[in-house]
Amino acid sequence: MTPSGLAPIDPALPPGAGASGGGFGPADDSAGAASQQPPHPGDSPLVPTPHGRHATGDDAGSVADEPGPLLAAGNSADVFALDDGHVLRRYRSGHDAAAEVALMRHVAAHGFPVPQVVGVDGPDVVMERLHGPTLLQALGAEEVSLHDGAQILVDLHRRLHAVPAPEGAPAGDVVVHLDLHPGNVILSESRGPALVDWANARTGSPGLDVALTALLIAEVAVDAGGVYSQGARVLLAAFLAAADVDPSAALDEGVGVRTGDPSLLEGEAELVPQAAALIRDLIEVARPS
Predict the structure, then answer these.
(1) How far apart are alpha carbons 174 and 166 in whole angstroms?
(2) Where does 189-284 show beta strands of DSSP type E?
(3) pLDDT for residue 50
(4) Mean per-residue pLDDT of the chain
(5) Which residue has the higher pLDDT, 57 or 238?
(6) Which whole-number Å values give the CA distances from 97 to 60, 89, 93, 94, 185, in the listed order?
(7) Distances (CA, A) of 227 to 20, 49, 149, 220, 239
(8) Can you list the domains of the chain with their CATH numbers?
(9) Can you give the pTM of this predicted structure?
């Protein structure tokens, strides 16, 4: 079993020509070419049609009813291809994505690599379509080493936590993604490693963000029936060794977040305490005597 959040279908890539092979994780059936830059977002809903035309108002509503081919169906949202340069992410519950988009725009304004948001309208977010494999795919195809993959995760944490928190955030808080794992990192041609799926993002402590990344990887490592457990263990050890933040103090909070996630599949919650124990063991072994 692989924890459900670790290997989602890549929301920014079309199905068809993914790589496969041994390594850390499965390679999804997706590949991509150079991305197309979208227009300046503005604040009004803006829905690109599959033919590159942009619709607003009544026309936008009709386009959004059948926006394009389904690229991914996640736990709470579906992602549709609109054209070569854009995707539509739609929450099935009707959840308003404005707060998520505000954080994406905030970190983008400080140079952090995220898809550019074109427009948001309630549960619908239109954004730039990044092209390239996910880090998960690249690890599975052995195109990126486990050590280099760990460093990419560490670098994204470091860059994200260096972004000033939005006005009004509690002292000491930074923007945290809380779902930063190889399946949510796209090795894009236009932006380099870029982070997608900001549904869980908010302000909080860097330690919690790092702890959740470690737990997501560790859950794969402790799954005795998993094909990728050994690779995940190596990736986890490299990540913890390179991380700027010791996640120990936030690990119990991270366990609570993971076990309280309603999207966990049957049996996944049982892996979380084991994952936390593995993280503590690896940190203890790495500490100087």
Answers:
(1) 8
(2) 192-195, 202-204
(3) 34
(4) 81
(5) 238
(6) 17, 10, 11, 9, 20
(7) 14, 41, 18, 9, 20
(8) 47-128 (3.30.200.20), 135-286 (1.10.510.10)
(9) 0.80
Q: What is the pLDDT of residues 80-136, one digit of tens each?
A: 999 999 999 999 999 899 999 999 999 999 999 999 999 999 999 999 999 999 999
Separation of alpha carbons 280 and 107, rounded Å: 31
Place of tokens 């549960």: 123
Between CA 117 and CA 100 the distance in angstroms is 11
Q: Between residues 72 and 205, which one has the greater pLDDT?
A: 205
Please tell me which residue, 210 or 58, carries the higher pLDDT value.
210
Tokens of 89: 């992410």
Q: Enumerate residues 6+ apart whose C-beta is below 8 A from 142.
A: 21, 22, 23
Q: For residues 90 and 81, is the Cβ–Cβ distance under 8 A?
A: no
161: its two tokens:
């936590």
As a whole number of angstroms, the distance between CA 51 and CA 59 comes to: 14
Please give the full DSSP string across 17-56, using - where no structure is assigned: -----SSSSPPPSB------PPPP--SS--EE-TTS-EE-
